[in-house]
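Q: Given only this backbone (362 positions), what sequence would you predict?
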């Protein structure tokens, strides 16, 4: 483990996925999950399509889920290079049954509560099929009987109360072919640790490899299978996972480390609200190192975040062209609310058989 990098990676910064429709996406993440849209902008590498950011009320680092709106992409496939799910924490264990009642009232498929590996979790899917976990540490060793009783007693939840608010990401779950290779990659390049690799309670022939730092030892939880097939990015799947560093100096140390090891990377890119550095893990998952600042309030006051289409300064000259393209997308991309939410896969942290067969190398 490189001593100069130890402790530099602070955890997750944001997670970016793909949606088919910005309005359905907005209503789900603001009205159903209670997040706030904190930036309404465009994909800087594909400026004729939207990039949507949702986070908590204070746009806290590690709470932002973002989406590229690409309605013409096919449905994505979970597998190597296309992670399995993401998990949000709640601050109160009593929020778990409340979330179940609330989600059911909104027509969302939900599974759990499940007790496993020191936490209690619910699982759901958004309208595009993104797998989401809502979780809390099981510090009191709550019994399944207690959860059933609580679940049965709580019949109606009519709003998201303050104690139910999603806090920050607990973890993201990519897929790996080789846990040792994954652990070595993160140790040598980012000074992250692999404190445990355990059998997967949902699928004993696979394992869960924890990757993290001292404060968050498993903010990445890889599902490991030597039969894992390749996935691909599409609607309802991950585009990339971003990890946080304090600032430019720390990010440059990681860039130098990647270059020293000959790891192909993007170089540092100015995203205006933060700086980004992209590279792939050994299984093809796209990772990003993002700085905590300048932040989403750089060009909007906190109380007005996400209300208007905001472009980075270098794209302002193209605003008319961009707005015409977005309007054309909307004219050809009608979807109704509420959508028909897809069912949660059972068991929720498993890789379906067709996603575990090795595909021929391309």
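A: Predicted residues:
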């Amino acid at each position: 483990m490189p001593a100069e990098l130890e402790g530099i990676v602070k955890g997750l910064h944001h997670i970016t996925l793909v949606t088919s429709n910005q309005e359905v996406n907005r209503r789900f993440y603001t009205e159903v999950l209670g997040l706030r849209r904190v930036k309404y902008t465009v994909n800087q590498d594909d400026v004729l399509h939207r990039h949507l950011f949702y986070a908590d009320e204070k746009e806290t680092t590690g709470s932002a889920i973002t989406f590229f709106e690409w309605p013409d992409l096919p449905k994505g496939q979970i597998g190597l290079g296309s992670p399995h799910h993401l998990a949000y924490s709640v601050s109160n264990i009593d929020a778990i049954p409340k979330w179940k009642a609330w989600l059911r009232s909104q027509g969302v498929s939900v599974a759990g509560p499940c007790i496993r590996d020191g936490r209690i979790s619910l699982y759901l899917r958004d309208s595009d099929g993104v797998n989401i976990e809502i979780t809390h540490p099981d510090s009191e060793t709550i019994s399944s009987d207690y959860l059933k009783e609580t679940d049965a007693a709580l019949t109606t939840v009519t709003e998201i109360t303050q104690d139910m608010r999603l806090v920050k990401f607990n973890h993201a779950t990519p897929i790996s072919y080789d846990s040792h290779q994954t652990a070595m990659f993160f140790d040598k390049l980012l000074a992250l640790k692999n404190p445990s690799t355990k059998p997967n309670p949902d699928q004993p022939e696979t394992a869960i490899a924890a990757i993290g730092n001292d404060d968050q030892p498993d903010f990445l939880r890889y599902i490991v299978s030597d039969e894992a097939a390749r996935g691909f990015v599409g609607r309802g799947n991950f585009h990339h996972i971003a990890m946080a560093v304090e600032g430019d100096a720390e990010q440059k140390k990681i860039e130098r480390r990647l270059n020293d090891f000959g790891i192909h990377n993007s170089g540092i890119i100015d995203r205006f609200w933060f700086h980004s550095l992209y590279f792939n893990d050994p299984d093809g998952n796209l990772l990003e190192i993002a700085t905590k600042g300048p932040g989403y309030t750089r060009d909007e006051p906190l109380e007005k975040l996400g209300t208007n289409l905001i472009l980075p300064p270098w794209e302002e000259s193209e605003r008319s062209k961009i707005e015409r393209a977005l309007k054309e997308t909307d004219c050809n991309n009608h979807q109704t609310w509420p959508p028909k939410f897809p069912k949660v896969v059972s068991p929720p942290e498993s890789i379906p058989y067709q996603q575990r067969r090795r595909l021929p190398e391309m």
